[in-house]
Amino acid sequence: MSKREKSQSLLDPAILKPALLGSLTKLDPRELVKNPVMFTVEMVALAATVLTVRDVVTGVAGSGFQIQIVVWLWITVLFATFAEAVAEGRGKAQADTLRRMRSETMAKVLLGVGDTFEPRRAHTLKVGEKVLVEAGDLVPGDGEIIEGVATIDESAITGESAPVIREAGGDRSAVTGGTRVLSDRIKVRITAEEGSSFLDRMIALVEGAARQKTPNELALSVLLAGLTLIFVLAVVTIPSFATYAGGAVSVVVLIALFVALIPTTIGALLSAIGIAGMNRLVRFNVLATSGRAVEAAGDVDTLLLDKTGTITLGNRHATRFIPVTGVTEDEVAQVAQLASLADETPEGRSIVVLAKEKYGLRGVDVAELHARFVPFTAQTRMSGVDHEGAVIRKGAIESVIEHARSLGITPPVDEVTRIATTVAKEGGTPLGVSRNGRILGVVYLKDIVKGGIRERFAELRAMGIRTVMITGDNPQTAAAIAAEAGVDDFLAQATPEAKLHLIREEQAKGKLVAMCGDGTNDAPALAQADVGVAMQTGTNAAREAGNMVDLDSDPTKLIEIVAIGKQLLMTRGALTTFSIANDVAKYFAIIPAMFIAFYPQLGVLNVMGLATPQSAILSAIIFNALIIVALIPLALRGVQYRPSGAAALLRRNLLVYGIGGLVVPFVGIKLIDVVVAAAGLA
Amino acid sequence: MLRHFRASVVMLLLMTVLLGIAYPLAMVGVAGAAFPGQAGGSLVEKDGKVVGSTLIGQSFTGEGYFHGRPSATTDTDPADSAKTVAAPYNAANSAGSNLGPTSKALIDRVKEDADRLGKGVPVDLVTTSGSGLDPHVSPAAAAWQIARVARARGLREIEVQALVNQYTEGRMYGLLGEPRINVLQLNLALDGLAKR
Amino acid sequence: MTLNGWAQIALFCGLVLLLTRPLGGYLDNVMAGRRTLLSPVLRPVERGFYRLAGIDPSEEQSWWVYARAMVVFHIVGFAFLYFLLRLQDLLPLNPQGMSAVAPDLAGNTAVSFLTNTNWQSYGGETTMSYLSQMAGLSVQNFLSAATGIALAVALVRGFARAESKGIGNFWADMVRVTLYVLLPFCLLLTVFYVWQGVPQNLSSYVEATTVEGAKQTIAQGPVASQLAIKMLGTNGGGFFNANSAHPYENPTALSNLVQMLSIFAIGAALTNLFGRAVGDERQGWAILAAMSVLFLAGVVVCYWAEAGGNPLIGALGVDNAAGNMEGKEVRFGAPLSALFAVITTAASCGAVNAMLDSFMPLGGMVPLINMLLGEIIIGGVGAGLYGMLLFAVLAIFLAGLMVGRTPEYVGKKIEAREVKFTMLAILCVPLAVLGFTALASVVPAGLAGPANAGPHGFSEILYAYTSAAANNGSAFGGLTANTVFYNGTLAVAMMVGRFAIIIPMLAVAGALAAKRKAAASAGTFPTHGPLFVGLLVGAVLIVGGLTFLPALALGPIVEHFALLAGTLF
C-alpha cells in the first residue's frame, strides 16, 4: 500500500498484553456462540475434558495422550480468541487516543437573543440547539456553522496539523465535535446528538464495538456452519462403522478428528480479518459507516472521479489571453484582470498573476475600485464586477454569449466559438471575457493532469473497473483531458442531476458504482452510489449521504478504498480455501491411525510415515492449532494484492492457498510428528 | 392446494393413459408387425417345439455339448417357499451370484471348477454371468472344450474347430463388444452335424 | 486394458459430445415453449391436457408454488402407484398371476419410482404384472424424469432471469418435456431395441424344452417400451431382475451403446441448455468439462480395476486375461461393463449390465464415489445439472472471494440465502447415507442384510443407502433388501435424497431469479475456463468426497488391501 498508511507493528507489546487477557474473556460461551465453528470446538473440548478427567480418576491407561489432546483442543480455541483480541486491540489503541481528546467539553448554548448564552455540558446538547464557539474553545458537537468564519484545528480527528477554514454557507460549513477553534468565533447549529456524533461513531468503529457481521461474512459463516455439520455426520457415524468391523474408536480420538476436519483455521480468523480490514481503512484515514460498505468497495465496477483534484492538479492556470479580431491582447488582459480581482478561486488568482507577469498590469487595490462584485453562481455561470458603469463579466463561453444577447448585442459567435473550440481541443478551458456585453476575447485556462494517474487507470482497467471522469468542462475539453489521463469515459458539463442519472444508468446495467463528493448537491448522488465517499471538508449533508468519509479529503483515495475492499474479500477467500484444503492431509494422518488397530491393512494409507497412531493424531491436532497462530499476521495484514484481472488473481491465489493448503499440512504434520516422537510425547 | 390437486389427478390419469397404456400397446403392435421374431423373444424351434431362445442361455451338462458359463440363478425351494435352491439358467428369475471379490464362497467355488477343468481355463468358464442367462462364451472358452466335445461325439477336433470358427461372432462392426460364441446355436449346429 | 476397450470408451465420449449441442438446442426450444418440428402434431395434445387439467401454462409460478405443485403431483402419483401394485392380482394384464405386492415393498417401490431412483427390492419377472410394469412403473419413469428436467430448467431460469418473481410453470414444464422430448425419442428407441432383440409382447412366459430335455421357463413382456424410458429417463429400474445384464434387456453391444448414450444424452444436453439460457454456451461447456473430468477419472480407475482381474482367481490357475468376469456378460466383457457401471452411477440411472457387487473393490468403489458425490457427473436427467450447479455455487463461494469480489456466478451474486439453501441441499446426502448406514451396521435387522462377510458386507450396506439417497437405484445386489427394515429406511433415504435437495434448490432458484444481474468485467471470476473447471472438480471432491473417506476406508479401501494380502472373508 502507500506511504500514507500509518505503520503499526503486529507484535506491539502494548497490544499483545491486553490481547492475551482478552483472549481469555472471549472464551465465555455466550460470547463465542457468535462464531459457530469455534463455539463447537469449545463445546467438544469441554466434553473431551470431562471424559479425560473421568479416565484419569478411574485410572484408565493411556490418559497421558488424552490429556495432551485436550490441552491442544483448548489451545486451538484460545488461539482463535487471541486472534480476534489482537485485531481488536489494534483498533482500541486508536480509540483511546480519540477518547482522551474528548474531554468534558462545555458548550455555550445561545439563548436566542444576541450573543447571550448559558454554559452547559456538551453531552446535554439537543439537535437544533445553537451554540457559540470562540477562539480556543472545543467545538461541543457536530454541527453546521450558521454564522461567522473561523480557522479550526482538526488534527485530533484527521491527524492533519494545518488548520482549516470553515465558514457559514456553502460547502465548508460543517464542524466536527472535538475539534478546536483557533481564531474568530462562529455560531453552530448542532446536528448530531451525543452518542451519535461523528467522533462517537469513529470510536465505536475502530473499537469494533458496533461490529456486525457483513453480508458476505454472514454467508461465509453459514457455509462454515454447514461444513461443520457435515463433518459432525462424518465423525459421529464412525463408531457404528467401527463396530461393524469389530473394532472401536475412542471418543477423544473422534473429537480430535472432528476438530481437525472442521474449518477451524478460517473459523478462528474470520472476525479478525474483518476487524483488520476496517482498521486498514481507518489507518488510511477513511471511516466507513459499515463493514458492508468496505465489501461493496471490492465489488465496484465503475468509479466516478471528479476531474479536479483527482485526475488533474486541483488548479487550472491561465496561460494565455486570446483576443477576438479588433481587440488587443492587453485589452483582454486588463478586463480579465478586473473581472478576477475579487475572484479568490485559484483560477481567478492565476488570471491576475498572468496579467501581472506577462502583460505588466499592476494589481489594483480592490477597495479603491468602488466596484460591485458579482459572484459566480451555478445559474449564470459567470462572475465579474460592475465598475464605473461598465458591466465586466467572465465565464463559460455559452454564458458570455447569452449575456451579450441579453444586453441586445450580437456577439461574434463564430469567431469566439472557433477560439474556444481550439482551446478546448487542446484540453484547456476557455473562459469568455466581456465588457458591457461585448466579447473581447478568451482566457486559456490549462488543466494539468497528475503524474502517474494514467498508470493507475490502466491498473484499474486490468482489475475490470471502468473509470468515468466527471467534469463541468465542455465536451471537447473533457475529451482532451480524458484522453490525456487515460480514463475510460467522461461526463462533461456535469450537473448533480446528470451525475445521479449516470449512476442510476450504470446500476441498471448491473454495475456497482463508487464516487466521491463534498458538496450538498452531491448528496443525492452519494446516497445513490453503492460506495459514496464524502470528504471530511464537505458539508454535513454530504457526510450523511455517503457511506464513507475520507478524513484527508483526498478523492484519489477511492482507488485505495477499492483495493482495501478487494484485499479483505481475498483474505477471507484465501484462508477459507486453505482451511478446507488442509483436510486432505489431516485425513491421511488420522484415518489410518484410527482404524489400524482392527484393520492393519490400512497402515498403507499412512503416507507420511508418522511414528505411531497416537503421534499421528496428536501431530494433526497440534498442526491444526499452530496454523491459526501462524496465519494471524496474514489475517491482519491481508493477502498480497496486486491489481490484475480476476483470472490472474484466481490462478495465483488458487496456487498459493489451494495447492499450498493441500501440501503444507503434509509437511507440517510430518515435522511435528518427528518432534513429538523425539520428545516421547506419544 | 386444491387447484394443484385437481391438476395432479387429471394430469396423472391423462399421462397414464398415454404413456402407460397407449404407448406400450402401440409398440407391441408395431414391434410385432416389424420384427415379429425379436418381439416374440427370439425363440428357437426344433421339430416344431420351442427349445429356447437364441438370446437366453441354457444349461448344458452332457460331455458332447459345449457348456455355457456357470449360472447363479435360483428358484424357490419346492419344499419351502421361503427358501431358494440353485437352479442354473432359470430364465424366469435372472440373477448374478453377487459374491464380492474377497468372498470365500466365490473363491471356493472357482477353485472347485478350476481344479475340475484344469490349469489355464479361461476365466469366463469359472465365473457366473451377471444375468445367469449369458448365452455366450468366449472363443477361448469354446476352444478349451473342443477336445472334450470331439471325443464325446467321436468327431475329429478339426471338424468341431471349424464349426466353432463358423459360430464365432466378432465384435460388432469390428469395434463394439467382445468376440463370442452363442452356445445354444453352436450346440444345435453340432447336433445337426451329427445327424448328417 | 485393451486398445479396443479404449476405442469404445472414446467412441462413446465422442458421440455424447456430438449430441450435446443439437439436443441442448432442441430442449431449450421446447422448454421455452417455442415452435418445434413436432408442434403441429403435439401442440393440440398439449393444449388438450392443459384444458382438461385446468392449467394456464403461461402462469408464472414463484418457487414456492412451483414446489407445491410438484409435491402434490408426487403425493397423488404415490397413492396411485401404491394401490396399483397392491391390487395388481385383481387387475388385467397379469398372465403369470402375480400376487399383490406386499405393503412395505409396494411403498418402497412407489417411492423409488417417483423419486427417479428405481431401487428395486424385488425381481421384476417374479413380482410385477405387465399392467404394473406399464401403467405403473413405466409411467413414473416418464414423469419422474420429466420432473427432474423441469426442476433443472427452473433453476436455470433462476440464473437466467433478472428481477423476476417466477421460475416457470411446473405443469407446462412437465408436460412439454414428456410430450416433446421423452415420448418421441422413446418411440424410436423402442423400435430400435426390438430390432436388436428386446421382446415387446404381452404373452405369458414361454415354456421351452431345452436341447438336453429340461424345462426352461423364459420370462416375456413389454420389455422394449419400458427399456426405452428406463434409460432415457435415467430411471434404471429393470424389467427383469438382472436389469441390462439380461440378454433380453440388452441383447447386443449396439443396444448397449445406445443405452449408454440414452443415459447421458439429456443430462449432457441440459448443460448446453444452461449455457444458452445464461447467454454464453461456454458456461455450459465448462460445467460439462468438469463433469467429464470426474467421469473419465472414474472410467480409468474402474476399467483398470476390472480389466486386471481378480488375483485370487488368477492364483487358482485360471486364465485371467479377460479380466474380472464374475457377474459380467461375455458380450460386454470388462471394458463395456466398467464403462456402463461408471455411466449408470455418474448419471443417476442405476441400470446395470454387470453385477456391481462382484466388481473388484476399487472397481466397485468408483460407482459408490460417483453416487456419494451427489450424482453430479451428468447426473440424473435434470438432477445432475441442478446438483452440479449447486456445487458450482459452493465452489464459487469458497474460492471466488479470492478474486476480491463478492462471489458471483453467471451474473448472480452468491449471498447468505443462496449459501444457506445450497448447504442444506448438500447436507442431505451425507445425512441419509451416513445416518442410515450407521444404523444398519449395528441393528440386527440391518446386519441381516449383507450376503458377503467382512468389509464387502459393509460396502453392501453403504452402497444401498448411497444408491437410495443419490436416487440412483443400482445395488450391490447381495444385500437382502426386501425386508421391512430396509424397505422402510431406504424409502426414507430416497425421499430425503430427492425432496431435501429439490426444495432448497428451488428456493435458490427463486432467490436467484429475484436478483438483478451483475455485469461481467475483467474483475469478474471467469467461470468458463479450465481454471474454473479445476476448481469445481476440486470442490466436488473435497466437499462431496472427503466426508465419506472414513466410510470408504472401512469398505472398499480396506477390502482392496485385504485382497492384495490374500485375505478372504
TrEMBL record, chain A:
Mg(2+) binds at D518, D522. It holds the Pfam family E1-E2_ATPase. It catalyses: K(+)(out) + ATP + H2O = K(+)(in) + ADP + phosphate + H(+). InterPro entries: ATPase_P-typ_cyto_dom_N (IPR023299), ATPase_P-typ_P_site (IPR018303), ATPase_P-typ_TM_dom_sf (IPR023298), ATPase_P-typ_transduc_dom_A_sf (IPR008250), ATPase_P-type_domA (IPR059000), HAD-like_sf (IPR036412), HAD_sf (IPR023214), P-type_ATPase_bsu_IA (IPR006391). It is a multi-pass membrane protein. CDD domains: P-type_ATPase_K. ATP binds at D343, E347, F376, T377, A378, Q379, T380, R381, M382, S383, K394. The chain crosses the membrane at residues 36-53, 65-87, 218-242, 248-273, 587-610, 616-636, 656-681. It comes from the Bacteria. Keywords: ATP-binding, Cell membrane, Ion transport, Magnesium, Membrane, Metal-binding, Nucleotide-binding, Phosphoprotein, Potassium, Potassium transport, Translocase, Transmembrane, Transmembrane helix, Transport. Part of the high-affinity ATP-driven potassium transport (or Kdp) system, which catalyzes the hydrolysis of ATP coupled with the electrogenic transport of potassium into the cytoplasm. This subunit is responsible for energy coupling to the transport system and for the release of the potassium ions to the cytoplasm. This is Potassium-transporting ATPase ATP-binding subunit. It comes from Reyranella aquatilis.
From TrEMBL, chain B:
InterPro entries: KdpC. Part of the high-affinity ATP-driven potassium transport (or Kdp) system, which catalyzes the hydrolysis of ATP coupled with the electrogenic transport of potassium into the cytoplasm. This subunit acts as a catalytic chaperone that increases the ATP-binding affinity of the ATP-hydrolyzing subunit KdpB by the formation of a transient KdpB/KdpC/ATP ternary complex. Belongs to the KdpC family. The keyword Signal does not apply. It comes from the Bacteria. Keywords: ATP-binding, Cell membrane, Ion transport, Membrane, Nucleotide-binding, Potassium, Potassium transport, Transmembrane, Transmembrane helix, Transport. It comes from Reyranella aquatilis. It is a single-pass membrane protein. It is found in: Cell membrane. This is Potassium-transporting ATPase KdpC subunit. The gene is kdpC. Pfam families: KdpC. Its main location: membrane. The system is composed of three essential subunits: KdpA, KdpB and KdpC.
UniProtKB/TrEMBL annotation, chain C:
Its main location: membrane. Keywords: Cell membrane, Ion transport, Membrane, Potassium, Potassium transport, Transmembrane, Transmembrane helix, Transport. It comes from the Bacteria. The chain crosses the membrane at residues 6-27, 65-85, 137-156, 177-195, 257-274, 286-306, 332-352, 359-378, 384-403, 424-447, 490-512, 532-554. It holds the Pfam family KdpA. It is found in: Cell membrane. InterPro entries: KdpA (IPR004623). It is a multi-pass membrane protein. Belongs to the KdpA family. The system is composed of three essential subunits: KdpA, KdpB and KdpC. PANTHER family: POTASSIUM-TRANSPORTING ATPASE A CHAIN, POTASSIUM-TRANSPORTING ATPASE POTASSIUM-BINDING SUBUNIT. Part of the high-affinity ATP-driven potassium transport (or Kdp) system, which catalyzes the hydrolysis of ATP coupled with the electrogenic transport of potassium into the cytoplasm. This subunit binds the extracellular potassium ions and delivers the ions to the membrane domain of KdpB through an intramembrane tunnel. This is Potassium-transporting ATPase potassium-binding subunit. It comes from Reyranella aquatilis.
